Amino acid sequence: MATHFTKTRILSRVKANKGLWFLRPSTLLSNPSSPTKPQNGNLGRLMPFVLGRRYKSVEAGDPCNVEDGDQVLDFPGGRVALSPEMRFLPESAEERISCYRVLDDSGQLIEGSTFKDISKELAIKMYSQMVTLQVMDTIFYEAQRQGRISFYLTSIGEEAINIASAAALTGDDVVFPQYREPGILLWRGFTLQEFANQCFGNKADYGKGRQMPIHYGSNKLNYFTVSSPIATQIPHAVGAAYSLKMEKRNACAITFFGDGGTSEGDFHAAMNFAAVMDVPIIFICRNNGWAISTPTSEQFKSDGVVVRGQAYGIRSIRIDGNDALAVYSAVHAARDMAVSECRPILIEALTFRAGHHSTSDDSTKYRPADEIELWRTSRDPTARFRKWIERNDWWCDVDESALRTNLRKELLHAIQVAEKVEKPLLKELFTDVYDELPSNLSEQERELRRLIEKHPSDFPTDVPCRWLVMSASLEHLLMSSFYLFDSQMI
Ligand SMILES: Cc1ncc(C[n+]2csc(CCOP(=O)(O)OP(=O)(O)O)c2C)c(N)n1
Ligand SMILES: [Mg+2]
């Protein structure tokens, strides 16, 4: 059944049936900055803004495959070529999107690969920090097992994504992490002592001991504090990128998230906003195969995450996340495009979570041990990068053992110091959200103090907290002066 349309017939029929308006961009507002005549109150004031934005969206949709003589449907989203064929898009492309790689498994450069050159100094710094991350993970993990900290989460297997992406950014770029990216902080100069202070929740922790271990953050280093609810950082990053754009800063926002994070609505809203607002941002998805015990096959049916970029109108690439040179080169190029063209870029880095999800997880319960072993040994990103720097004669066994021995010593020292530092004041648990403490929080604070007093053995003894000893009736009498008294004491 062939149907023949003419451009005018189609347009007039749709107009008549749907009551829609089809306007060419030029007819919408030839000069978006010249306000239309106010018609009535608020609406009149809003008109220039609304029309100005609509004009842009029409512009954005213009296709490149419309040729002279084609039958075309002109609609507010742009011009589309018409087709007499009823053709559904297939649910997937015939071929999966390929993965950009520079180093093979044995650390040898793949012939013909394009990558950004790095100096010996930079390569050694990158390698040393990947090792630092490994040693840090081993020691903090052991500290958790010994009961010295309450929780920990390693980045084992994802050292290249952490360090090589950090190396490709500048310190002005604002980072919004998920939680498996402490390597960026490390690269920016967060000390082992600062990591230890946060994990031990002591007085020197910038979060004042109010967060679980690994929820690092640093104002100074442009690294937003880790937030437990998955994917909430992604729209925040887009907002920050928009503000960088408005302030015309020579920087971008960069946000990290896992494959699991892409199943949250926040991911989709953020991608769409970033594309429509043309903001300088890099989205890096660490597709490590698992969201705790949920495999990617239960997260999405699409060809991974990279294909979603195009659906939102975002330039995208899939890379080997265990190849430090590929990560460095791709993030470097992405940053250039994001900043100079003011546009979002999506990077899907394929990797594997080679450790348990966290200290609350045992991944051998839901995945084969030999698969974990394979990724931990022959596919380890740090070992691969070491092979490359050794081939260049930039590294040897003596350097390796000196580095690891020193790091171990430094970390053990940092832990010992962190453990001895006082805990933050109990009072701090309730501050920094409201200017003035609301009554429900004051009540919670009083209740907590009463509980600690009643059951001292159930609470840590190293939280400095002087008790307000008072009987219930006396407390009642003094209620009005309580806040003043309390805030001066503790
Ligand atoms: C909104 C929300 N839902 C569920 C959780 C529980 N949770 C914590 S981590 C996680 C898995 C996230 O997986 P992924 O994004 O792939 O990151 P990965 O751990 O693999 O690095 C889940 C479901 C949470 N923290 N927040
Ligand atoms: Mg994951």
TrEMBL record:
<comment type="similarity">
    <text>Belongs to the BCKDHA family.</text>
</comment>
<dbReference type="GO" id="GO:0009083">
    <property type="term" value="P:branched-chain amino acid catabolic process"/>
</dbReference>
<protein>
    <recommendedName>
        <fullName>3-methyl-2-oxobutanoate dehydrogenase (2-methylpropanoyl-transferring)</fullName>
        <ecNumber>1.2.4.4</ecNumber>
    </recommendedName>
</protein>
<dbReference type="GO" id="GO:0003863">
    <property type="term" value="F:branched-chain 2-oxo acid dehydrogenase activity"/>
</dbReference>
<dbReference type="InterPro" id="IPR050771">
    <property type="entry name" value="Alpha-ketoacid_DH_E1_comp"/>
</dbReference>
<keyword id="KW-0560">Oxidoreductase</keyword>
<feature type="domain" description="Dehydrogenase E1 component">
    <location>
        <begin position="129"/>
        <end position="424"/>
    </location>
</feature>
<keyword id="KW-0630">Potassium</keyword>
<keyword id="KW-0496">Mitochondrion</keyword>
<dbReference type="InterPro" id="IPR001017">
    <property type="entry name" value="DH_E1"/>
</dbReference>
<dbReference type="Pfam" id="PF00676">
    <property type="entry name" value="E1_dh"/>
</dbReference>
<keyword id="KW-0479">Metal-binding</keyword>
<dbReference type="InterPro" id="IPR029061">
    <property type="entry name" value="THDP-binding"/>
</dbReference>
<comment type="subunit">
    <text>Heterotetramer of alpha and beta chains.</text>
</comment>
<keyword id="KW-0809">Transit peptide</keyword>
<dbReference type="GO" id="GO:0005759">
    <property type="term" value="C:mitochondrial matrix"/>
</dbReference>
<dbReference type="GO" id="GO:0046872">
    <property type="term" value="F:metal ion binding"/>
</dbReference>
